[in-house]
Amino acid sequence: MKISDRKVIMFAGKGGVGKTTCASATALQCANCGERVLIVSTDPTPSLIDIFNIEMTKKLTVVSDNLFVLEVSEDEIKEMWDRKFGEEVYEVFSSFVDIEYDVFVDFITSILPGLGEEFMVDYIRELAISNAYDRIIWDTAPLGQTLGLLKVPEMLYEHLRMAPRIYSHLKLGGMSKRPILDIIGGWCSLSEDNIEFLKHDVDIIIVTIPEALAVEQMERVFAEFKHFGLNISKIFINNCIEEVDSKFMRTKREQQMVHIATIKERYAHLGIYEIPLFPVEVRGIDRLNDVRATLFGEANS
Ligand SMILES: Nc1ncnc2c1ncn2[C@@H]1O[C@H](COP(=O)(O)OP(=O)(O)OP(=O)(O)O)[C@@H](O)[C@H]1O
Ligand SMILES: [Mg+2]
């Protein structure tokens, strides 16, 4: 398989299917090809460090000369969000509700699912623009409402637009004299920038396993991405049984083959790659290299 032309490769899929494993194997391949690679995890329970079997030293962990691991915790996401959007959004909300700033930030970052993801898109966009890396591999959190929140500012804006008379009478605190609609408008255009970035600069790979539930969930994931006009380029089907040495395994493989066939039929226009189920957990660079080789071939070691 050829590595993507796009600078950012995002791995998405349901919990536990092998996103981090596939992201790490792809990062290794890019690094082997001489690219300067950052693999970044936005999972609230990060495991890149475990998978690479390395010790985390600083925020940015060095795996090799040109491969770096960055795990961003929820608290850090909250802090970055606060720095970038906090004040402006607070201005809007505090014009409706009497609330302290700190309480507001805690409230909003904990209660709105997907806000961290929205911020992460923005954060990764900035990383991509900075040109610090040739390639950014983005290991996402299990998909729930991941991208749903990208649309929130727009909805809010629409809502406010419908009721200008009420809102134009609302007074903002001393911080700003900017009209609410202006502030939300700015927030909207930032969301649009992020969507544009996802559309044009990010290659999206869905990781799944050959099981009924996972295949059904993929349908929803595809619908969600399509709604935002985002293209999924490839599907990795992980944990495929290859060798059969018992009745149990044969039965299991027969079931898997039904689901693999469904995926191939339904998504015939995409690149579909099967990754074998290994008898041992994929931990450490050597094992990751086995996964890398099944995807990209042996030539690069
Ligand atoms: N092909 C494989 N063969 C054997 N074990 C695998 C394979 N792929 C992944 N694993 C193991 O399965 C477990 C889950 O994989 P991984 O952490 O990559 O999934 P994930 O989708 O990132 O999970 P989460 O949604 O929790 O982030 C790990 O212990 C990993 O070593
Ligand atoms: Mg993971």
SSE layout and pairing:
Layout: E1 8-12, H1 19-32, E2 37-41, H2 48-52, E3 60-64, E4 67-71, H3 74-94, H4 101-111, H5 115-130, E5 135-139, H6 152-162, H7 164-168, H8 180-201, E6 202-208, H9 212-227, E7 232-240, H10 247-266, E8 271-276, H11 285-296
The protein binds adenosine-5'-triphosphate and magnesium ion.
Residues 15-21, 43, 47, 142, 238-239, 275, 277-278, 281-283 line the site of adenosine-5'-triphosphate.
Would you write up a description of this structure?
This protein is an alpha/beta fold and 301 residues long. The chain has a single domain (8-296), classed as P-loop containing nucleotide triphosphate hydrolases (Rossmann fold). 51% of the residues lie in helices and 16% in strands. It is built from eleven helices and eight strands. The protein has helices at residues 19-32, 48-52, 74-94, 101-111, 115-130, 152-162, 164-168, 180-201, 212-227, 247-266, 285-296; strands spanning 8-12, 37-41, 60-64, 67-71, 135-139, 202-208, 232-240, 271-276. Strands 3-4-2-5-1-6-7-8 form an eight-stranded mixed β-sheet, sandwiched between helices. α6 packs antiparallel against α8. The longest helix is centred in the middle third of the chain and has 22 residues, at 180-201. The radius of gyration is 22 Å and the shape is globular. 33% of the residues are buried. The site of magnesium ion has 5 residues, from α1. It comes from Candidatus Coatesbacteria bacterium 4484_99. Belongs to the arsA ATPase family. This is ArsA/GET3 Anion-transporting ATPase-like domain-containing protein.
